[in-house]
Amino acid sequence: MASCRMLLLIIIIISSTIVKGQESSNRNVTLRSSIVANSDSNSTWTSPSGEFAFGFREVSPGAFLLAIWFDQLTDKTLVWSANRDEPVPAGSTVQLSADGALELVDQTGNRVWSSQARPGTVAYAAMLDTGNLVLASNTSAILWQSFDSPTDTLLPTQVLNRQSVLYSSFSATNFSRGKFKFTLQADGNLVLVTRSYPSDENVNTYWSSDTVQTGFQLIFNNSGNINLIRQNGTILRPLFNIGSLAGQFHQRLVLEHDGVLRHYVYPKSADSSPAWSVRNFEPSNICRAIREDAMGGGPCGFNSYCSITVDGRSSCHCPSGYYPRGGFSGCAPEFVQHRCDHQQAQDAQSFTFNEMSGVNWPFKDYAIFRDVGEAWCRQSCLSDCLCALVIYSNRVCFMKPQPFSNGREESGKALIKVRMNNTLTSNPGTTASGRESSSTTLTITLSVLLGCAGLLFLLSSFFFVFYLKRTKSMMVKRSHVRPAGVSMISSFSFKEVQEAANGFNEELGRGACSIVDRGTLKNDGKVVAVKKLNKILEQADDEFKAEVSSISRTNHKNLVQLLGYCDEGQNRILVYEFMTNGSLATFLFQKSPRPSWYTRVQIAFAIARGICYLHEDCSVPIIHCDIKPQNVLLDETFAPKIADFGLAKLLKADQTRTITGIRGTKGYVAPEWFRNMPITVKVDVYSFGIMLLELMCCRRSYEPDVEDEGEAVLADWAYDCYQQGALDLLVVGDEEARSDMKTLEIYVKTAIWCIQEDPTLRPHMNIVMHMLQGSMQVPTPPDPTAFIH
């Protein structure tokens, strides 16, 4: 009987061992295993204790990161992600492929991220209890690990080697790379630096370990001590040393979006308050630590100021008369600044000061006056078109231009120059003949309000009138259905369009597949442009449907308004608002007179605003695919409007890229069209960059008949001039431009970023707008052609 009990005990022990072995082995992820991004799915690869999980996290509706997080904590704190700069839509998949690589592909099959593949050596993947995701061989040798590619976080047992980098997140809710870096440099110095976002160029070191040539590794040990060591393994200096925390707390070291490196702990005991708390941080005062004297706007961006709250965190604010731009982009004025032209003295009467005590923007003074009174200081700034801000302290007057930087709380009085009543005006424009307009410029705010009201009224009127007409003609047989997505655009009969266009006898221009005539609507006498496709081919029909579908989804002051269309029998006709001053190409490339510099600058920014709307603000993002001067029209005030959406490509709500045949016009077509690469909104950015150079230089992108062959290709010549510090050569004979070299440099540098052959280096259009507006520093651009695919 005793032997039977002993045998039973042995069987139970063996069975228990087998079960435990199976549980342990089940934590190993086999080749060809996968996880699909889905809002309703809880599929993850977890560590043996369940403390960490690897899988997809939805960070915004329909957008997923492939990530690692603390799975047992309430807030599921993220500690690593593979695709922080490019969230993927639902339906995307991560798979441990047969050749041993982790591969993340979106729902269309495009590869977004991949680990290093080691064919024939990787046997399995495993999520470890340290928070480290590893790919291992049959002998459990680690062949790849997430610890070697950190994002913004280090965990206990993790090591930061030389040239490894932590990047802060963009904001508390946007996990893409932000403005700050924490890195152990190749020379052994451990530093916190700001970078010239969106490029990776270092701008300012605001904390340093001062361990040049001696620092070797930063080790976060399990006890909670974080030490910088020498190559022989001895401690060079502790970063944070708070005694043993092993087993008592969850821990993480994070470079947060405000630029502060913080060591967090979270009690494991059920008796303690379940929350992360800060044990140590550097620097002690981020508002004073960052001093971007040469370039950059400080911790909060240009025209903002930084303060420290009661919990020791930084907070960013805008001065009176300014509004926040979002992220770390600082603040922008709610008014147009003092004009520096022949009307500056008259314009000075429109300004006053908002006073703020205890705030200063140190550095970057362009003038200092000592032993003067405050009244004198005020009047001096009001009379100076360059003065945007005065700091008055102890009878010293510090005058500062736009943009002001490194704002922080400290003693002194700030006098912020603002336009009275926040009146918004525009820069002086010119007529087509080059003469300055003598009419007083309208305020931007009033223009926007009136424009919106007028547009809504116009749309409502046309819809009502032509809805009645369309109802009466419902019996007309049509050979084509209404293009997808079109709802509020009027549908005309061919007879109505023919009458409006006076039998198509007033031609305005023609293209490869269409002729544009002038017309007049019979019901209200409105002048319109009638575009008739003259090739009834499948391609032309597709172009017609694309144009109607894309432009009918838009509503923006810098996009031409589509009033209606005709799709009857073999007739494909589009009816647009009429643009008085024709195309930008005609305006820009006329031999004489040269268009005003200020008008060209305004046109460039307005076009950027229109493209940004297409990419980011439409209900369905639109890639125009054919941005060029011929497709930008000018209204009676020379305000530009983007036209000709015949080649446009609509993106699905969860798409960022697409595959399509080559579209566009030679000279403006982005290089990726020819490289079998996925097409993104960056193709429009490239085309805009070429057109921006044309606007600045008042010449075509390619002119074969120039005397110097090096000047034939404008993009190459512009970069050569920039490199040589000779931008004035681009605007020879243009005295207006030569007197505004600062703006010329900003616009040319921005254009060079836009025409980078590597599409990942090109900024998005919202960043382009920040650069052109001066609310973001434009970093030094690399050679546009230095791209190896």
Q: Can you describe this structure?
A:
The chain has 789 residues and is of the alpha+beta class. The protein has four domains: 126 residues, Agglutinin, subunit A (Orthogonal Prism); 118 residues, Hepatocyte Growth Factor (3-Layer(bba) Sandwich), CATH 3.50.4; 155 residues, Phosphorylase Kinase, domain 1, CATH 3.30.200.20; 207 residues, Transferase(Phosphotransferase), domain 1. The protein is 22% helix and 27% strand. The chain has 14 helices and 43 strands. The strands form eleven sheets. Strands 25, 26, 29, 30, 31, 32 and 33 form a seven-stranded mixed sheet that branches. It has a six-stranded mixed sheet with strand order 34-38-39-37-36-35, with helices on both faces. A four-stranded antiparallel sheet has the order 1-10-11-12, with no helix packed on it. Helix 9 packs antiparallel against helix 10 and helix 9 packs antiparallel against helix 14. The longest helix is centred in the middle third of the chain and has 29 residues. The chain is globular and about 85 Å long. The protein starts with a helix and ends in a 16-residue tail after the last helix.
Characterize the overall form: globular
What's the architecture of the largest domain, going by CATH?
A: Orthogonal Bundle
The major sheet is characterized as: 7 strands, mixed
Radius of gyration: 31 Å
Please count the helical segments: 14
Q: Could you tell me the strand content as a percent range?
A: 25-35%
Integer tally of domains = 4
Structural class: alpha+beta
Quickly name the level 1 CATH class of the largest domain: Mainly Alpha
How would you state the average pLDDT, rounded? 81
Number of strands: 43
CATH topology of the largest domain, by name, is: Transferase(Phosphotransferase), domain 1
**Helix fraction by DSSP (H/I, runs of at least 4):** 10-25%
Low-confidence runs of at least 5 consecutive residues: 1-26, 423-449, 462-487, 650-664
Cα-to-Cα separation, first versus last residue: 77 Å
The CATH superfamily name of the largest domain is Transferase(Phosphotransferase) domain 1
